[in-house]
Design brief:
CATH architecture: 3-Layer(aba) Sandwich
CATH class: Alpha Beta
Order of helices and strands: EEHHHEEEHEHEH
Helix content: 25-40%
Distance between the termini: 35 Å
């Protein structure tokens, strides 16, 4: 089974919200871009929430995300996996969140793109993080494999990332 690696975080100074996936799928790895699968709804949802026109170049999408105070990364730094499904993840190791937290102390909210990202974070990352108040919230996966919700329903749930009035839930 191939060993795959995550991308670097997309984040800048002052970021207060971090969106976490599990680890890039095959289409993303091939394109070297977060959420590159043409049927993944991540970018259409984010751009809609940020009231940006689509399509934009990948770099323009990243800039929009960061200009809104949003960061993007994956829970896992590496794992083995056949295909792109989260259920196939094995031999998982987490990214270095201790260093990220130290570099970006303004992060107060963490949103998970799906249940697997949340479960991995709670199991592999949260126990070792220095205690600080954080809002942790799972959102419906934007993956085409999560077809139980349509894009409109997912968009409604994802509106939580642009609301800044949540209270700590760690």
């Amino acid at each position: 089974m191939p060993l795959i690696y995550s991308f670097s975080p997309v984040i800048r100074e002052g970021c207060d919200t971090l969106i976490l996936g599990s680890i890039p799928g095959e289409a993303s790895l091939k394109a070297a871009e977060y959420y590159a699968h043409p049927r993944n709804q991540f970018w259409p949802i984010i751009l809609s929430l940020l009231e940006q026109a689509h399509p934009l170049s990948y770099q323009e999408r990243l800039n929009c995300l960061q200009n809104a105070g949003l960061g993007l990364w994956d829970v896992l730094g590496a794992c083995t996996r056949e295909g792109s499904l989260d259920q196939a993840i094995q031999n998982a190791s987490a990214n270095d969140f201790g260093t990220l937290w130290a570099q970006y102390p303004h992060i107060q909210r963490v949103f998970f793109n799906g249940a697997k990202a949340e479960a991995l974070f709670r199991r592999l990352v949260l126990p070792d993080l220095p205690h600080r108040p954080l809002v942790l919230q799972r959102l419906p996966s934007t993956s085409p494999a999560h077809a139980g919700w349509n894009q409109a329903r997912k968009l409604e749930a994802w509106k939580a990332i642009i609301k800044k009035d949540q209270v700590s839930s760690t």
